Amino acid sequence: MILSRFEWTIARRYMLPGRGEAFIALVAGISLAAVMLGVAALVIVMSVMNGFRAELLDRIVGLNGHAIVQGYGGRLDNWRAVLKAVEATPGVTHASPLIEQPLLATFNGRVEAILVRGETAGDIGALRPKLTAGDLADLRPGANAVAIGSRLAENLGARVGDEITIINPAGRATPFGTVPREISYRIAAVFEIGIYDYDNSFVVMPIPDAQTLLLSGDSIGMIEVRTSDPDRVGEILAPVARALAGEVVVTDWKTINASLFQALAVERVAMFVVLSIIVLVAVFNILSSLIMLVRAKTRDIAILRTMGASRRSLIRIFVAIGFVIGALGTLVGLLVGFTFLYFRQAIVHLAEQATGQTLWDPKIRFLTDLPARSDPTEIAAICVMALGLSFLATLYPALKAASTDPVQVLRYE
Predict the structure, then answer these.
(1) Is the dihedral of CA 140, 144, 145, 146 positive or negative?
(2) Where are the domains of the chain?
(3) What digits encode the pLDDT tens for the residues 60-83?
(4) Which residues make beta-bridge pairs with 70?
(5) Number of Cβ atoms within 10 Å of the Cβ of 337
């Protein structure tokens, strides 16, 4: 909507009321602030929710792969043939044997539940960017060396170079019963993935060492698979599931983490709906401020009508006033939202210091830092929603102003 010079002059005059109309200016200012807060809240919350999903997906899938091919009973004896079949499947970019087993670890009298992961040299090397101490080069088969998560190291009070004892309760059968198997391993490296549960339990070692610890011979637990498109992993691995039906079970990341990502999706939609109500309330403030402005300017509107101003011009004037308030609130809200996201970690630390409370506990939040990832499409949708509601709120006051009868208003002037 393009305003003429006359219409813009009147609209600008009404957007800056005089001294006797301070209350109208106050209501308009509150309307602008409400739109700003609503837009900022939507931008912050939706970006943080997107960051949660993206970070969890990157870290969970980045560590566990897009799918696992697992044998019945947790054992895969003919894994080399299965591995060859998986690698030959179109769309599979990487496949490697993997052993995972929950065990116990002890150090200086402290005992912690752990998850032992036996991996190939290539998969172990992928942890290098996550290292906080030590060197992965020492993780060679037969070297009795392991890499452990940073939180587990803190809980055990262990550092690089210390020896921890890993206990396999299954052990060996003897005439006196089953004796747990205990093997000491030197900590060669400490890593931090960023997901508390992983950093608190993972112990990584070469596959031959894991097979020796678990007395599993040449068998493994599963094959970890990565594909060219994580969202199509089920479709890509469908031929493997059909060809090896009855021998293996194919489980993708969507199934393994279904409850977590479904909960995030539901919470994301719920937060968007709830926070949109803030923008709706702000729009009602715009509506009320324009109604008051029209009532206060009834005489002026009548004079403009007698001077030749058309009904269309009056509609444009009052629509422009409300729309400018909404547009300014949206713009400032975007700036506030992006500023908050940029300094989000510092703000969290400041709030923790001010309140004395731990607001971001990794034990509860999964991630060690507050994530954020803005989606341009969502940001555009938020802006369109705020501007669209602001425009709709201006229609009734504008039509009311345009319908003013100058004869009735100026009869006794």
Answers:
(1) positive
(2) 5-57+260-410, 77-220
(3) 666 677 888 888 877 888 888 889
(4) 222, 249
(5) 24
